[in-house]
Amino acid sequence: MFKKTLIKKTDRKAPCGRKNNAEKNPAKKDAETIYAFKPVGFVRREGASESVDWSDLGATSRIEILPRYAPALDGIEEYSHIIIFFVFHKRKTVKLTQRPENKRCNPEVGIFCTNSEKRPNPLGMTVVKLLKAVGNVLTVRGLDALDGTPVIDIKPYAGFEEEAPEYHIPDWLMKIWEREHSSQ
To answer: What CA–CA distances, in Å, run from 90 to 35, 40, 71, 155, 157?
Structure first.
C-alpha cells in the first residue's frame, strides 16, 4: 500500500536549483506598493478652476513653489523649457479606454494613449516654455493644468536625443492636432 503524504507548497523543492514558486515575486510586491508624493508647489492660472484646453499652448500660468523648495530652483532660469509633473487633483473617474476628446469621430484607445486625467494614477506631465523665474515663482507658457493643481516635480528639458527627436504619433492624433491648429 502506498501511504499518502500531504506536502505543503512551501515544503516542495524546486527542480534544478530554481527558486520555489511559492516565494513572493518581487515585481508583484512592487506593484502592490503605494507611493506617496508631497507637492513642491501649486499652479496658479486665472479662469481655469474647472477645465483647460490641452491645445491652448499660449496660456500663461504661474507655478508657486513652496518656500522650503525654493533652493531647488537655483539655475532653472538658464533653461528655455522645463517639464512639469503634476496631479490631476480633480479627477472624478478612472477609465481604461476612451475616445480622445470624447468625440465619436476619434477611435476608442487605451487611456495610456491619451493625455486624459482619467488614468489609473492621476499623474500629468507637460513640457512648458519657461518665461521667467523670480524667487519661488515660475511663469510658464503651455501648461495644461488647473488653478490649484499640485506640482510634484520639475525637471529641465534638455532637448538631447533621449527626448526623442525622431518620433511617430498615430494618424488619429495627427488629425486632432491639425483640426485644433487649423481653426486658429
So the answer is: 19, 18, 29, 23, 27
101-118 confidence digits (pLDDT tens): 778 888 899 988 888 788
Determine the structural domain holding residue 151 and report its residue range: 41-159
62: CATH: 2.40.30.70
Q: What angle do CA 91, 103, 141 make, to 5 degrees?
A: 55
Decide if 93 is inside a domain: yes
Q: Which residue, among 73, 67, 63, 57, has the nearest Cα to 43 in the 3D structure?
A: 63
pTM value?
0.71
| Neighbour count for residue 128 (Cβ, 10 Å) | 24
Residue with cell 512551501: 10
Q: Please report whether residue 14 resides in a domain.
A: no
3-state secondary structure of 11: helix
Count of structural domains within the chain: 1
- The model's confidence at residue 158, banded by pLDDT at 50, 70 and 90, is confident
5 within a domain of the structure (yes/no):
no
In a domain, 169, yes or no: no
* Lookup: cell for 150: 499640485
